Amino acid sequence: MKKAKSLCLNAIIGVFCLQNLSAQTVKELYNVGLPGISPKTLVTVVFINGKGYVGGDIEVGDEQTLLSNDLFVRNNLNMQFAPLALNRVRWDRSVIPVAISGFSNAQINSIVQALNEMTDRTNMSFVKRSTEQLDYVEIINDPNLGFNGGSSNVGKRGGQQFLRLNMALISESVVIHEMVHALAFYHEQSRSDRGTYVEILESNIISEVIRRRNFDILPGASTAFPYDCASIMHYKSTAFGKLNPNGPGQMITIRPRPGVSCNPMGGDALSPTDIQAINTAYPVETSNTHLNAVDFLVSSPTITEAWIVKNGVMIHGSVWSCSTCSSKDPEQYQLNITGTRLEGWKLDNPSYVKASSIISSNDQFLKINILFKYNASVSGVTVNTLRLKKGFEFINIPISTPFIVLD
Length: 407
Hints:
By secondary structure, this protein is α+β, with helices and mostly antiparallel strands.
């Protein structure tokens, strides 16, 4: 099997790996629904795994919806379309409800720390989303993102919207960068006046697809504040650059114009101008209450008892035998567990289990169907514990009546 193309680049913040470069498709579309951009403006959209992106990491929707919206405008270009106003995509009272899902507890701690840093330095605050809050950002672990790093919508979209992360070690800078997008801010180098301050070295960019995806000027990017090379929303100097043939690292893709000071080029934290811009857009100062990581952590269950059932009968120290099994008819058992905080946990299949599935699950009871492999490789081994998993968290549970796996 031919391996997919992959390239790691010094990009917005830290290192981003772009995967499946050849699988990315580029289209110019109308009506991508971005704040401050008229639906009659053609925008370059790159599709990765069925999702459309502009400016690199700004998610604008799924391919089918975007193509449908584009077709509508193309058929009605004589109509008047007003750009989506920025005040319609800002969050009420400077507060963003958030949910966090699919991460390990260590990753959750890093995400919460990044959001609390934003609370400390701006008028914004974040609260754990309740079911009554219909508009919210869900921060999710998305291994199918198509690149290592993160993505977000620009501004409040209405209802559930996603901030996607795909990285083993969470970068707090990436979390802040993507959340600033969710506040309705674009990349700094997407401004219409960037040519006065920086130069894009197009020949040094890794590919034409990347140039169109990541370096386009977007008319919605604000020019209300002085151009800020140090912004957390600005690319670094070698972002998406080709490998340097004359030395280590990558080639420079963005450099300051003569007489313009850019040190650093692309910040790892909110700059003073970032803070000023956010607080101007969100003038209502909140209570600056911190999120508590404990509220988002995956709570390990407390196990009262775990036992094995076959044909409705509890196995009391019996030897499990697959001597009569065939490859088409493996032994079937049920694992029953009682305790607390059990909902959402499942079996982390050991080597001798062919498959397992949840029969029923709630906070205090978990029932799992287990199919054992024919000719299990651990024949004769006594099993005293099994392991459950939930996201990236694992817990070993003792079996009330240990069993032996036999072929």
